[in-house]
Write the structure tokens for this entry.
Amino acid sequence: MKTHIFVATDGSDTAAKAVDLAADLAARYDLDLTIGHVLHFGRPSEELQRMAHVEHMIEEVRAKAGVDFPNVPDTMLGLFAETRPGEESVRLVTLVGDEILRLAADQAANMGATKVKTMSSQGDTADAILDMAKEAGADMIVIGHRGLGRLKRAWLGSVAQKVLNTADCTVVSVR
Ligand SMILES: Nc1ncnc2c1ncn2[C@@H]1O[C@H](COP(=O)(O)OP(=O)(O)O)[C@@H](O)[C@H]1O
Ligand SMILES: [Mg+2]
């Protein structure tokens, strides 16, 4: 029996399904669950924009962290389109990442998982997921088969593909 599950989320609906499955297993078998997110400074952002609730998230983190972003444009497009990540966008990406993890941890708790931790990292997404899973001591990784990307013709996302091909533990890709 598996003892520690690692689930990766980019905040997408498919990743939320992965969190559901991972949390359900963790709850049923009283397993440790680590939820991981890889932060993308600089390039990510067109994907972040696709999250329907990103604007809401920004408001949330702004209020909660008491952080004021004086130059946040009305739409997030301007900020996220920056080629060089400014200090403000780095902070924002970090806070949005924290919020993605917080929502996923809430979701897991609602599913009845009790031993839940969160982690974030950066760098190549698949490599970072594999490293975090190893660091957490996970022997099973759960991912979504797609994420926030828009390459519809690919049946499997590139992160999912690389994790499935490279991991040396069991990987479950959720549809
Ligand atoms: N930045 C990220 N942090 C954590 N997990 C991620 C990240 N990006 C993708 N994933 C995981 O990989 C899965 C597949 O995403 P991906 O391969 O990027 O597909 P797509 O090309 O559709 O975005 C997601 O459902 C999620 O579980
Ligand atoms: Mg993606």
User: Anything to note?
Assistant: The mean pLDDT is 84.
